[in-house]
Amino acid sequence: MPQRQHFFCEFLLGGQRTIVIWYNGSPDGLLVKEDGRLASFASQTQGRAYAESLAIAIEAQAPTAYDLDALERWSRQPLEEQIDCERFLDAWNMLNDVAASVDNGSSFIAADAIMNAIYEKMFRGANLLRPPGGEIYEPAWTEDEIQAVGKLFGLGIQVLRGALSA
């Protein structure tokens, strides 16, 4: 079984930058403290010290940043023309990993489970598997789909806030 790799991620939420440690594997997830909340830090230095105390190596690359303040604003007033499939897909996957890692994530996981068709549309819209020179897929979104994604992101951010609070 391959060993997990650990990476820093940076969340911008509530106007504050927070460092967390994400890992790949089966399943992917985030490091969680004994109290069930995410291990979160004000700096990479603090995060690295915590990881070292657990004998975990952090991969040497810049943290992936998630502007969750912008996502939260969109979720409150979701507009089709502001949908960025690649950025939204990244956020959706991260919120799913957060929810799967913490005790209070079941509401997001349940909501996410019934949105497979919308997720697939978002994935296709990110054009990650498009061959060079291939046709770009630009999804047409229904108002119901837009509202569903907005509600899901709002719920995911609520779960994240609970997982970060002290």
- List the helices and strands in order: EEEEHEHHHHH
Q: State Rg.
A: 16 Å
Largest sheet: 5 strands, mixed
Global morphology: globular
Oligomer: single chain
Which percent range describes the beta-strand content?
5-15%
Helix content: 40-55%
**Helix-and-strand structural type:** alpha+beta
Integer average pLDDT: 93
Q: Number of DSSP helices? A: 6
List the uncertain runs.
none
How many domains would you count in the coordinates?
1
Q: How far do the termini sit from each other?
A: 34 Å
User: Count the strands?
Assistant: 5
Structure, briefly:
By secondary structure, the protein is an alpha+beta fold.
What does this structure look like?
This protein is of the alpha+beta class. It has one domain. 46% of the residues lie in helices and 14% in strands. Strands 1, 2, 3, 4 and 5 form a 5-stranded mixed β-sheet that branches. It is globular and about 50 Å long. 27% of the residues are buried. The mean pLDDT is 93.
